[in-house]
Amino acid sequence: MLKLVVICAIIFVLAVVMTMAGRGGGNFYVLLLVLSGIPMHQAATTGQFILFMTALAAFFVFQKNKAVVWPLAILIGTLTASAAFAGGYFSHWFSGFTLKIIFSGLLAIAGGLMLLPIKERGEHGTKKGFGYWRFESGGQTYTVNLWVAVSVTLSAGFGSGMVGVSGGSFLVPLMVLACGVPMRAAVGTASTLIASTALMGFIGHTIQGDFSPALALPLAVVTIVGGFIGGKFAMKTKPKHLKLLFAYTTLLAAL
């Protein structure tokens, strides 16, 4: 019982902080659960479930503040959800050790991306032609490089669903760098994408019989509150201020 209380307390803090930065925190959820003695496959399934609940709570906050770019959320959300389902389902093709290696690799890449300087493009992209999608949302015009967006989205979704993480560390840089989305809108849109990815990854894992309600439900209650609070803080705080902190902690987790 004491062990579960400690896990809940740590996960609550993670839910608040990671939601503020547009990252679900699934990598840390899974790491914490594995270190607590939970088998990798069950930890990944539980991580996806509480990740979905966190992102869903945060989504309502961001949507209320009009910080979700819906055309982009629908495109990337559909791709990541499909890829995450496949990743969750085919995770049993790999051993727990292999999943841990993939997990560490994703964390290292995510940490490296966080160290890169990310600048918001004032014109939100001006390129035209085959492979570029131009649309308007919230009074802003965006141009998306589909060659980059689709390939990165599918790869991130599959890998994230396989090991039980959100892929948020890839999605935020993707939206800012390839799609020209302002940081605050990227964080808000990421909550929608993280929710869809986590839900489909969770379903894929659950089909394989890895879901434990006794463990997941108490954690879900905690993360719902954390996601709501984190979303509130995100609307008042610039996520870039926590950028280096998350980069180093992510790289540390990869070890």
Task: Explain this structure.
The chain has 255 residues and is mainly α. The chain has one domain (2-254). The protein has 10 helices and 2 strands, in the order H-H-H-H-H-E-E-H-H-H-H-H. Strands 1-2 form a two-stranded antiparallel ribbon. Helix 1 (2-20) runs parallel beside helix 9 and helix 6 (146-163) packs antiparallel against helix 7. The longest helix is centred in the N-terminal third of the chain and has 25 residues, at 40-64. The radius of gyration is 17 Å and the shape is globular. The model has no long low-confidence stretch (mean pLDDT 80).
Outline:
With 255 residues, this protein is mainly alpha-helical.
Beta-strand fraction estimate: under 5%
> How many strand segments?
2
What is the terminal-to-terminal distance?
Answer: 29 Å
Integer tally of domains: 1
> Given the helix and strand composition, which structural class is it?
mainly alpha
Gyration radius (Cα, Å) is 17 Å
Model regions low in confidence, pLDDT < 50 over at least 5 residues: none
Along the chain, the helix and strand elements come as HHHHHEEHHHHH
